[in-house]
TrEMBL record:
Keywords: Methyltransferase, Transferase, Ubiquinone
One GO term (biological process): methylation
E.C. numbers: 2.1.1.64
Record flagged with keyword Transport: no
Name of this chain's protein: 3-demethylubiquinone-9 3-methyltransferase
Length: 295
């Protein structure tokens, strides 16, 4: 299963239509911190099948301490490699985008909190959103902008966007990185318009998740870079549901996991993509979805 940005030896041809992202009718806000770069065509440099990143190379990565944002700078060349250190983020982005319906109106805005290098972008093509990404890491934002994302530097605990500006807010693989979960959830719900859709995915605060997402995943190329997670920040599911409810969004959770068949195919060198499928439990990786109250 080849993902939309995967292929053989040429630049990705996925169009990113300015009109689809709002174009001149929906210019980016002019507040400080906005870095607007939009392109007519996705500039994803496609790569052919490449081996999973060798263990020796992974072990050479500097030890910056757990959950240190500088790790994303050190791994900037890995973001868009389908078999690189962030391979699993590509699979999760596809699963997240599957929860996002077509834009409800022309010029609809999707705010992508902790957008990283914009891996969600190819999966939103044709849905009709202007894709606004917020992140702390400049190197990741530059890559996101190259992929058609309106890139905004900011902390998800203090998002530099106005109240109710978003038709959809995605918070994918970010909540398990923030020291102040109530602030991040509060901000996600604040920028969401009444009736808008919140989509999250993150890692549960359980012993099983610590085993799977840290002990095991950090030894599996493509699952999680070494030291990227601080398990102390993993997300208590009941707390998350309560925080969303307190901010006017009732969310439902479901567990997800990589398709075992696709993983076997990947390891056998057949295909680069892995589908995320429903899991019987939310106790490792989970998605949440809900709408903000209209009044
Ligand atoms: C695991 S990556 C997920 C990226 C993207 N959502 C994806 O799924 O591909 C986490 C991202 O969150 C960003 N990040 C971490 N803490 C942040 C914060 N407090 N505010 C904004 N971005 C943050 C990092 O720079 C990184 O790009």
């Amino acid at each position: 299963m080849a993902g939309p940005h995967e292929g053989q030896g040429s630049r990705c041809a996925h169009p990113i239509s300015l009109a689809a992202f709002g174009g001149a009718d929906h210019p980016a806000p002019r507040s400080s911190g906005w870095a607007v770069v939009q392109r007519n065509r996705c500039r994803c440099a496609s790569v052919g099948p490449v081996p999973l990143r060798p263990k020796a190379e992974r072990d050479r990565s500097p030890d910056l301490g757990r959950n240190n944002p500088e790790q994303y700078d050190a791994l900037a060349d890995q973001w868009w490699l389908p078999r690189g250190e962030f391979a699993m983020l590509h699979w999760l982005a596809a699963a997240r985008a599957a929860l996002v319906p077509a834009a409800p109106r022309p010029g609809a805005v999707l705010v992508d909190l902790g957008c990283g290098a914009g891996l969600l972008a190819p999966h939103l093509v044709g849905k009709g959103y202007r894709h606004v990404g917020v992140d702390l890491t400049r190197s990741a934002l530059a890559l996101a902008a190259d992929h058609g994302v309106t890139a905004v530097r900011g902390d998800v605990g203090r998002v530099p966007l106005v109240d109710g500006c978003a038709d959809v807010v995605c918070a994918g693989e970010i909540l398990e990185h923030v020291p102040d979960l109530p602030a991040a959830v509060g901000e996600a719900c604040r920028v969401l318009r009444p009736g808008g859709l919140l989509v999250v995915d993150t890692i549960a605060d359980t012993r099983l998740a610590r085993l799977v997402a840290v002990t095991i995943a950090e030894r599996v190329p493509g699952a999680a870079p070494k030291g990227i997670h601080d398990p102390a920040l993993f997300v208590d599911r009941a707390h998350l549901v309560r925080l969303c409810a307190d901010n006017g969004v009732g969310i439902a959770l479901r567990g997800i996991r990589p398709s075992a068949l696709d993983v076997v195919r990947l390891l056998a060198g057949r295909g680069d993509g892995v589908r995320m499928v429903p899991a019987p439990t939310t106790s490792v990786l989970f998605q949440g979805i809900g709408r903000k109250r209209s009044t």
